[in-house]
Amino acid sequence: MEISCTPDENVFDDGDWELIDALVRVFSSMFHIKGHVTVLDDTQWKNYMTNGETPAEKKKTEAEIDSLFGQADTETNSIWLNPRILKRSYDQLVDTIVHELLHIRFPKDSEEQIMNKERKLIGRFDTLRKQRWCYV
Ligand SMILES: [Zn+2]
Fold it and tell me: pLDDT tens digits, residue range 6-25?
């Protein structure tokens, strides 16, 4: 039997989830978000976002999701974080959690307004703009 010690880079492990849960709890409290924010995993988020789609539509939607840092759903107070980008990239993980929670806190704000709020909070927004990944 072969035992692999290589971490799976495509999923968050228990330690990642512990960190994510703590950051979401603390930031949610700091941002005065009412109610609990749920963090969905990859499978849950893709099932939710592609509900009712045809197989071809699902494939397209899932590819779009894979290209994002994360997403927020203000209707259900839930967020998703992309493990393929954010696992072991703690700066970006923290920034993305802040960004997605701002969407939950200010559901009517435009993407630009959210980005302005994010920039004020994290102070390193300019470096993210140069990357090909984008927030939604
Ligand atoms: Zn956004």
Answer: 567 789 999 999 999 999 99
